Amino acid sequence: MTTAAGPWASVVALVASLLLAGCGEQTEAEAPPPRPVRVITVDKGQGGQLVTFTGQVEAQDQAALSFRVGGRMIERSANVGDQVKAGQVVARLDPQNALNTLRSARAALTAAESQLVTAANTFERQDRLIASGFTTRANHDAARTAQQAAQSAVDDAEAQLKIAEDNVGYTDLVADAPGTVTARGAEPGEVVQAGQMILQLARKGGRDAVFDVPAQMLRSSPADAVITVSLSDDPGVTATGRVREVAPQADPVTRTFRVRVGLDNPPEAMRLGATVDGRVRLSNDPMIEIPASALTAANGKPAVWVVDPASQTVALRNIEVGSFSPAEVGVASGLSAGEVVVTAGVQALHPGQKVRLLGAGS
Length: 362
Description:
The protein is α+β, with helices and mostly antiparallel strands. It has helices spanning 2-30, 96-132, 137-169, 215-220; strands at 35-41, 50-59, 62-66, 71-76, 83-84, 89-93, 172-174, 179-184, 191-192, 197-203, 207-213, 227-231, 238-246, 257-264, 275-281, 288-291, 296-298, 301-308, 313-318, 320-324, 328-333, 340-344, 355-357. Helix 2 (96-132) packs antiparallel against helix 3 (137-169). It is elongated and about 135 Å long. Residues 1-5 and 24-29 have low confidence and may be disordered.
């Protein structure tokens, strides 16, 4: 029996060794190759998110020119785009009614002055008579009252004459400062009301870039920040400025605040009405910025895959997001400068997986 079992034992041992060798070769063949991933080496940015808003260029000082009296406009000598000078007549009303009122006021003043002369003479006679005892105190007082009433009538007539003279002058609409006409509100032949805008004048001087800004951006922007403004259709044309005015109340529809940025020496290409982009960096501490594609989640919190340079393996790490935009994520904590973060293929990784780096630029 012992002699017969010897050959069988040798065969069994040989088969077992072959099977073990085959298993080893299969395990070695099934080991996955390192997964190629795109990465960046992170570093801290300048601090604060760079935000951009679109607005337009307006004059710092704009005025709506209007008549002080109503009437039929017979002439408008300025149009949109025209340059006007201080004291220039830009529109006229038909002055006929104002001239008639002026003639009536002059006639009323002449009549009031005649009544005053008569009342003054009567009072003078009564004053002499009462001194001699030939009139009564009642007659003397009545004459004095009549003189005072006549004097008041003269004063009123003089005031009405001054108003009538002013109204004749108000039939001419005069530019009070040099500037450029940016809009018109009425055409010759129309009957206009007092205070109705006839021409809108952008007075010569500074220019503003005007933007509609959300409230949270106003809270995050630094005090006295320098804002870079450029033309939307030609980014090479730029200027800088600071916030000059913030609307005290939000727009009822958009819930944004109108912000006026005073431009320092704007180029001529930044004409009134031009569309511009304003850029400002919000006042936050410097943060590490990573592409939004690097962001994933772990334990219900934001996370990223961090590469161990020594072992070329990845590990999932939670981070705190400080700011977010469609293109970039600002990391407030969880990463250090110099670490390598996976930016593409994050959904196909698992902890401890070997990777092959395709890029490590910051």
